[in-house]
Sequence to fold (222 residues):
Amino acid sequence: EAQVTQNPRYLITVTGKKLTVTCSQNMNHEYMSWYRQDPGLGLRQIYYSMNVEVTDKGDVPEGYKVSRKEKRNFPLILESPSPNQTSLYFCASSGTPNTGELFFGEGSRLTVL
Amino acid sequence: RKEVEQDPGPFNVPEGATVAFNCTYSNSASQSFFWYRQDCRKEPKLLMSVYSSGNEDGRFTAQLNRASQYISLLIRDSKLSDSATYLCVVTQRSYIPTFGRGTSLIVHP
Fold:
């Protein structure tokens, strides 16, 4: 089954404790992206990747890091989480992002205390 | 001005009603247009692409007006199951899809 898998789905952590949200897709997509969704603000792009070893900042990259060492994986790293990073995070992938469908993971709800 | 703007709603309509949403975009170089549906606390899913000539999928009709820089979504014969948030998505050559904040639809009995 074609899918985008994120883990963990839910996480409560404390300020400053490094964490990683993993994202994996099995569709051989070149394009992958991370979004955060907050009430009233909609989906905002954090980082995206056009291919292995190619990553670029989105609209809200501050406080986040990503890596793309393999085509299927695109982890999101919060080196020192802060309460303003409490949000719902979505990973997405696409074979042709400009003209095709974005496939989303089920989301990861992160709370930073 | 935001790149992609939608009326957040909510649009509250009875079953069987016809409802329409608009979405305006600011960049005239925008190339591709989509409507996504998002249920509460779930991931967005593609509802339909929007083509220049307009397109229909069952009860859903999407249209693009490049001159006025907006796209629309028309839902006929609304069902309870249509209740969701509808996201407008616009992409440009930069391959960065830009999402609107969504329009909430509530269909009541």
